[in-house]
Amino acid sequence: MYRVEVDRNLCSSTSNCVEDAPLAFEMGEDGIARAISGAAPDEVLRGAQSCPVEAIRVYDIASGKRVFP
Ligand code: SF4
Hints:
It is a single chain. This protein is of the alpha+beta class. The protein has helices at residues 16-20, 41-50; strands at 2-6, 25-27, 33-35, 56-60, 66-68. A three-stranded antiparallel sheet has the order 1-4-5, with helices on one face. The protein has a two-stranded antiparallel sheet with strand order 2-3. Residues 6, 11-17, 33, 50-51, 53, 55-56 line the site of iron/sulfur cluster (SF4).
C-alpha cells in the first residue's frame, strides 16, 4: 500500500491526476487535488506520473521509502 501526499504549494490545479487516475485523485473545493484513500497502487502511480509539476509524492507504507518521484 502507498501513502500519498499532494504538495499544496506545488499543485497548480491542472486536474491531470484526476483525469488519468479518477479512482485515486479528486479535486477539492479549494481547487487543490487530494488523494482518495484505498486506491490501487497502479492507479496512484499513474496519477502521480501525470502531474506536470511533480506535486504528488508516493511512499511505500511498509518500507517508508519514497516510490515517486
Ligand atoms: S496533476 Fe498535479 S498540479 Fe494538476 S491537479 Fe493534480 S496534483 Fe495538482
